[in-house]
Amino acid sequence: MDAAVISFGNKSSPAITQTTTATTTTATTNMFCGSSCVNTTISTSSRLAFYSFDNSTSDATGNYSMSGIASPNYVRGWIGSAINFSYSNTQFLSTSYIPLNSRSFTIDFWFYATDVSSTLDFSFGGEMQSSSTSKCLFINIRNKVLYFGFFSADTAGTTNISINQWYHAAFVYDNSTKQQSIYLNGILEKSSILNKAFLANNGSFTIGGAYIGGGTTPIVYYSGYIDHFTISSRIKSPCEIYLAATLACYFPFDSISLLIDSGPNFLTATNTGAIATAVAGRVNQALQFSSILSYVTINGISVLSSTNNAFTISMWIKPTSVTGGATLIHASTQPDGKGDCLAMWGLTSTGLMTVNIIDMSNNIVTMTTSSALPLNTWTHIAQVFSSVSGNLLYINGTFVASVSTVTRRPVGPYTILGASPANTSYCKAGSISMGQFSGSIDEYYVFGRELTSIDICHLANP
Ligand SMILES: [Ca+2]
């Protein structure tokens, strides 16, 4: 156990001294913290089509639902289920023409390829009017890298795609500068200015296969899974794309959206117990737990249930009592909190804050503060894990302690806030004294990245 000396209730003192530097044009900059993407609002504006592929090929906007060709099926996805294609079975999806001509657009989605080598091209989707310049859109894996084509007006990515792992891809076209950009896992791979627009004004939009124009194989297919496929008639900013790839969920717990995930993945949460009255929060409203068994269950935070995946969890906590300890975050393979589970965040019997992970050798890697959480005061807690940095704890934006560890067992897919549903010592870990948390929580974030101290400064100074 690694203890740290922590001064609570001192939010206004500088967490870090940081010279502000301009990075992207869209990052939030404040002179206190520096520049970061973490506070960028996730927007669904100008969304033309959205396919969650949760056992359905319907478009959430209602306009462009897809029909399956050769019966692609469903598998466990990055969020809920995903659609699964086989190149050799020539499976794909098709809908009517989606107007992307002569305008800016963004197409972004999650994918998990099961083959990138057996042929030159694998196509995620496209839209063809004819085999002529600027009239055939296709977004592919070509020669193992992402590839963005309008036909004779194309851009290739730079990173070789591996099979059997999830990636986030974004293809952005800026019609004002005639620029194509490819992002992989939220990071810009390649931009090129083509001086050509996309001009097709008819043709079916397809997913899982596309016409690439010309050649002896005019239509190519895809092998693997595709999830949360979004088409928007606007440029998504670098920060939006970064968060689309890295922000697993964000629950602001405000009254109009008490259990709504305001992040890019639209995870579902359920409330159990006599709670969920919105109270004055750290940012707008918050969630208050009562003295009887009460908790919120979030399903499907894939970054936590992926072995060794880096993560950052950020949350505000205001206890009304710390007597006897509490469970703050409990992860489990089952919604009842049992099965393979872990008490991740909680209080000791004397109110000290503890954050845990479990490594691949089943050791609990734990950090505990040296003083109790203050009562009736908002305290910001952030836990960071990465194989490089280990398990890190930040209090009110200040790094206070770390324990080195390279591996991490997956936890979840159920993440339960406020108590364990079993409300006993199932999967007790470290020095947490498990039980109902008394007080409020606010602004729950999970990222699939090791956030920087600048990012955490923003989260701790909203
Ligand atoms: Ca809030």
TrEMBL record:
SUPFAM superfamilies for the chain? Concanavalin A-like lectins/glucanases (SSF49899)
* Keyword Signal belongs to the record: yes
Residue span(s) of domain LamG-like jellyroll fold: 309-454
Which Pfam families is this protein grouped with?
Laminin_G_3 (PF13385)
Write down the superkingdom of origin: Eukaryota
Q: Name one GO biological process term.
A: immune response
Query: Which keywords describe this protein according to UniProt?
Result: Disulfide bond, Signal
Q: Is Nucleotide-binding included in the keywords of this UniProt record?
A: no
Name of protein: LamG-like jellyroll fold domain-containing protein
Q: Which organism is it from?
A: Adineta steineri
